[in-house]
Specification:
It is a single chain. This protein is an alpha+beta fold and 382 residues long. The chain is 27% helix and 29% strand. The chain is built from eight helices and 18 strands. The protein has a seven-stranded mixed beta sheet with strand order 1-15-17-18-13-12-16, with no helix packed on it. It has a five-stranded antiparallel beta sheet with strand order 3-2-10-9-8, sandwiched between helices. Strands 4-5 form a two-stranded antiparallel ribbon. The radius of gyration is 26 Å and the shape is elongated. About 3% of the residues have low confidence.
Length: 382
């Protein structure tokens, strides 16, 4: 039996296909996702292999955070600085040759100052060599579900086989935010001074009233400029990855990059909204039971049902409960017995499971005969 629910229009946002692709961007690759629901708001070449540049450092920091969380290292531990780390070019935190640097300083040196030298110190401190650490990074990436990402170093230094995708960078960001709330705070710090040198965070969104609290920028000559950003406003958090923005390395270019990313974030929050459909355990519908010790069973939401939809598309959407009635006993609490189908013009239909809110035992032989006869004579009674 199909039951149509009298609900406000909603759209299930766990959909992987993008809900809309109406925003133009000069980025070669782009991906915007609602972190809570998984709704893809924008994607442009999101699965195209690309050089991640310094956005690779998110994985280096992720590995470091895991060691801290497991208690295998402490923030006050110190790692030695090798000549390789000291000599690396590009962005640096300026670690001292032959010195030792605390883990907490190294975190800030990577996250805020984007130090290539700090990445090598961490890699050598955790794995003995940068090459061994890169292999560990790739292995961990596979465990996180990243199928295209390959790391050849800890910093994102250009290498033809060091690649990822915009979608997979967003996965790293999501895992970082969810898994390490006690350490994620470093990503929102504006500046840091080490070895007498003060440097500002390269994330341009942190300097504006956007709600941004991370994560990492990147740049190579081949890959252009990129940014993996997280922005939180109220209960919503959006993760954005852009790469391949080709603008001059100048004040005007810096302003253009910042404006591009800010425009995308504002569009994502302006054009889409999250809506609460049902809370976990909340009754959605009741269904008749066949040969059970209860006449009906509540159909409930197994988890909080939060959905994302384009604001303009909300009107006209319909939610339908689909299940076979009567449901034959025995029924176990938590057993899936139906589904919600959410439909709207111009967007794919999505489905959510409905589960039994209570257990219903099967009647004994005599009871089943009586109930069957009653059903044949009088039909379902609720």
């Amino acid at each position: 039996m199909i039951r149509r629910l009298a609900l406000a229009a909603v759209f299930v946002a766990s959909a992987l296909p993008a809900l809309a692709q109406t925003m133009e961007t000069q980025a070669r690759q782009a991906y915007i996702v609602d972190m809570k629901t998984g709704a893809v708001l924008l994607e442009k070449n999101a699965d195209e292999v690309m050089p991640p540049s310094s956005m690779s450092k998110m994985m280096t920091v992720h590995m470091l955070f895991e060691k801290l969380q497991k208690g295998e290292i402490k923030l006050t531990d110190e790692f030695p600085v090798s000549e390789k780390a000291w000599r690396i070019q590009g962005s640096k935190m300026f670690v001292p040759l032959g010195g030792r640097v605390k883990v907490e300083d190294l975190i800030r040196g990577i996250v805020i100052q984007s130090g290539n030298d700090a990445c090598i110190v961490v890699a050598e401190g955790l794995a003995g060599s940068e090459e061994a650490f890169a292999e560990q990074m790739t292995k961990r990436a596979r465990e996180l579900g990243l199928t295209k990402t390959v790391f050849k170093n800890a910093s994102g230094w250009p290498h033809p086989e060091h690649v990822t995708t915009a979608r997979e960078l967003a996965i790293i960001a999501k895992h970082t935010i969810e898994s390490f709330p006690e350490h994620y705070k470093y990503y929102s710090e504006i500046n840091y001074t080490f070895n007498g040198i003060k440097q500002g965070n390269r994330n341009p969104l942190l300097y504006k009233q956007t709600g941004a609290d991370g994560l990492k920028t990147g740049h190579t000559e081949a890959g252009g400029y990129g940014l993996t950003a997280s922005v939180k406003r109220g209960d919503r958090r959006i993760i954005m990855v852009v790469n391949g923005i080709m603008v001059p390395n100048s004040p005007a270019g810096l302003k253009a990059r910042a404006q591009e990313t800010e425009n995308l974030i504002e569009w994502a929050f302006r054009e889409f909204e999250n809506y609460n459909l049902f809370k976990s355990g909340e009754a959605v519908q009741s269904a008749g039971v066949w040969l059970g010790d209860a006449k009906t069973v509540p159909l409930v939401a197994g988890d909080d049902m939060v959905v994302t939809l384009p604001r303009k598309a909300r009107q006209g959407m319909k939610v339908t409960a689909v299940y076979q009635e009567p449901i034959a006993a025995p029924i176990q609490k938590g057993q899936q017995v139906g589904k919600l189908v959410i439909a709207a013009p111009g967007v794919p239909n999505r489905e959510l499971p409905l589960i039994a809110g209570e257990s219903v035992r099967q009647l004994g032989p005599a009871g089943r005969i009586t109930a069957a006869v009653s059903y044949l004579i009088f039909g379902a009674q609720k």
